[in-house]
Amino acid sequence: TAACMTCAGGLIMVTADGMGSHPMDMDTLGMDAAGCRTRTFTCLGMNANIEKFQINNGQGVITDPEDGAVDMRALMTVTCNAAGDAWLYMGVSITQVDGAGVIQDGDDGAVDMTAMLSVTCNAAGTAWEFMGAPITQVECASVVPIADCRSCAGNLIMITMAGTGAKPMDGDMLGMDANGCATRTFTCLGTGANIDINMGVGVISDGGDGVIDMMASFTVTCNAAGDAWEFGGVPITQLEC
Length: 241
Known about the structure:
By secondary structure, this protein is an all-beta fold. The chain has no helices and 26 strands.
């Protein structure tokens, strides 16, 4: 595995310290054209600024419309560096983001109550970067509070790699169900792919959807209180690919 696919999630601290701040609505893993890991943070709400993102304790901000559309969304994607030890944005290690005012809803040209920030893992795998600057902290904030069922923190589910053949989760995609509540869809790829749930209480295997395609996926939903990700009413606290 290339080092730029191995940046640890903990290299970026997601805070909720500022006025109007709340847990990040989405933290989605992906891959760039060079095959390096990326992370896209999404903040939702009225006047979304990653909703505003403050990057690296004030060194930068992404604001709506960062993508040309004023849509109440600010987006920033970071990529795992080559060494797998940092998330990068444009070559800069990203260690912090905050809802103070860099990425705002509308930065992408659409006011849609969403702010997004994408960072990229650097070549050494030592930092997540945005435009070459290391990102170490991010924070999501909004003027109008969002529904509790859209505020579940990402760290309510622990992703482990303890078992034989275990590896980082290939996908962790945030979405929304028909009731407007946050969802997360985890994806595990590979031969005999499966997702272990709650320390072996359950397992999702390739073929569970009727198709053998070297992929297992599992979707959980934020509960009404915003304090747990659930599947069939059962809190999900641990997953392993």
